[in-house]
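Sequence in, structure out. Go.
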Amino acid sequence: MSVAIKGAIPVRFEDVFPHGAYAVNVTPVLDFERSKGGAQVQARDRVTNDPVWAVEVYDADSEVRHQDRSVKVKIAAAQQPVLPDAMPGLPFRPIEFEGMTVRPYVTDKGRLAYSYSARGVKTPGGKPAPAAASVKGQG
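Output:
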């Protein structure tokens, strides 16, 4: 039997985060193979060669176990993605992802896990967020 699905599986933001998501921060994803001797090298996307960024978000679903609430979604982009503005008086930043994909995998402990990626971020129901100015030394 052959498997028709190869690579990442397209998913809708609403299917992954039906109750919404709140962004915490954006950090460069490190290439552990190339980061040697104290030098940190940012990972690059295999297809576009753009630097890879991780957006840490919290799932707004109150039914999700506490240890599963924090999720990182990877974005390959020439410049660091800019998060939407925080809610007034709170550290929360409501966020939506565009062009999401998921890659299921099995962890070292035999547990099923998921790696999420997206093409970009935006304010819920809004326009895509602009890219940040180039970050020196990232890449």
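Check: The CA atoms of residues 112 and 120 lie 26 Å apart. The two ends are 41 Å apart (CA to CA).
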